[in-house]
Amino acid sequence: MPEAKPRNIVESFFTSVGNILESPVIWVREKIVEPNQKQYPWYHQKFRRVPTIDQCYEDDIVCQFEADAQYRRDKQVDSEVLTILRERFEDCALYEAPDHLEKCTPLLKQYEDATTNWFIKYGDLGAYHNAKTAFMKQKHRMVWERRHGPVGCGMQGKVAE
């Protein structure tokens, strides 16, 4: 839309002063700031995936540190997902007050499944754990399931070797 012509000399003066002050700011923004901004289609920074702890050599401290950092980020994301699922169920239960057991059952099941998966991955590791202890927990669980069947179904006796 073209700008309207100034009606008098005072308006013309203030328009020209405004243009003098505004044009360098616009030039810096368009030519320097916007081309150098990181463009994310989401609101949080996306980190590149690093090798997991089982892909690191024993003496590669940097790889192990990156794997631990990735593990901590993954745990934080999984915990936030649990929080969101729990809040969704609680909101549904409040909104559907008398019939919430019937109407919010899919949300409760989704939350319980996510909680079970979170506990399988992160539960019973203690306060000071890292990617290596979580990986060892996963390894021990796989050995148990190979010998005795899925965890929680009871021991099925000795497996023929």
Automatic annotation (TrEMBL):
It is found in: Mitochondrion inner membrane. This is NADH dehydrogenase [ubiquinone] 1 beta subcomplex subunit 10. Belongs to the complex I NDUFB10 subunit family. InterPro entries: NADH_UbQ_OxRdtase_su10, NDUFB10. It comes from Brassicogethes aeneus. Keywords: Electron transport, Membrane, Mitochondrion, Mitochondrion inner membrane, Respiratory chain, Transport. One of its GO terms (cellular component) is mitochondrial inner membrane. Its main location: mitochondrion. It is a peripheral membrane protein. Signal peptide: none annotated. It comes from the Eukaryota.
